[in-house]
Amino acid sequence: MTGCTMNAPVAGHYAAELDVDAVVERVRRHYPAGATAPELAPLDQLHIGGLDASRRLLERVGEQGARRVLDIGSGVGGLMRLGAAHGLEMIGVDITHGLNRLNHALSRMCESRPASWPVTGDAARLPLCDDSVDAVIFQHILMNVMDDRSALDEARRVLKPSGVLVMHEVISGPQVEEMRYPVPWSGDGRHSCLMTARTLRARLEAAGFTVTRMHDQTEAARAWRARQTGKERSGRSAAAALSPALVFGETFTTMGRNLLHNLEAGAIGIIEVEAGTSPD
Fold it and tell me: How is residue 279 annotated by DSSP?
């Protein structure tokens, strides 16, 4: 684990280059009739794997019969809107208030409005009652959570006894010395909280979860990131209506290159996890 700071710097990292009003105006100008999920994806699917990764997570919770779903670290809200379009009641919690404002604004503008709105809150102190949701989703969140034990304890607390936890997370790879910054979740490593797959399993079990599935998605993620990097180098991404650079600023191009390097060099990996609640 690299040196992790408190949550205020994490929120500041994601808010540093974000101009909510300017982004909203850009979306309204390009999609006056309302944007679809694929049109919003370059802006609201800010994780490795894009729309397909989010759809896989929602398929997992759907297979478990979940109806009320908590998205921890909901960001710009892409996962929430996808879930809502499939009839799920989506609840979002994110530490960065600016991202929640943008999430709310985009949901009001898109074709399918979510059944609930995001709130600003801390994964380690969730503003929800015990046993109140059917499923919890973590997507590229734990790498920014210093107190991961409390965050997993909180996820266990708010889940119903028959609930399911699904994850799509960045983990520490076997060649951590090859890590390059900046990356989307950290400019210089100060709030990068990567852990190994083995540590993640141990943390989940300590929080009262039974891991039923751990699937390494690193190779698929590397191929996806290589395609995105090709678009960025060709200038196609810059010419697109929307881009992750609207959130991360001009350094996103460097972040994207570093992501590809880190995946190819084994500095990071990508894992998908499914877990149920263990008896108390």
Answer: P
The tens digit of pLDDT for each residue in 19-63 reads 999 999 999 999 998 889 999 999 999 999 999 999 999 999 999
DSSP 115: S
Distance from chain centroid for Cα 200: 16
Rg (CA), the chain: 17
% of the chain at pLDDT higher than 70: 92
Reported as a single tens digit per residue, the pLDDT across 152-211 is 999 999 999 999 999 999 999 999 999 999 999 999 998 899 999 999 999 999 999 999
Burial class (CB in 10 A: 0-12, 13-18, 19+), 74: buried
Question: How many other β-carbons are positioned within 10 Å of the β-carbon of residue 218?
Answer: 18
> What's the pTM value of the predicted model, to 2 decimals?
0.93
Q: Model confidence over 111-124: pLDDT tens digits?
A: 656 556 789 999 99
In 25-82, where do the E strands start and end? 68-72
Residue 87 CB partners (closer than 8 Å, separation 6+): none
Coarse DSSP helix, strand, coil percentages of the chain, rounded to the nearest 5 percent: 45, 20, 35
Rounded to 5°, the CA angle 42-53-185 comes to 60
174: nearest Cα among 158, 194, 148: 194
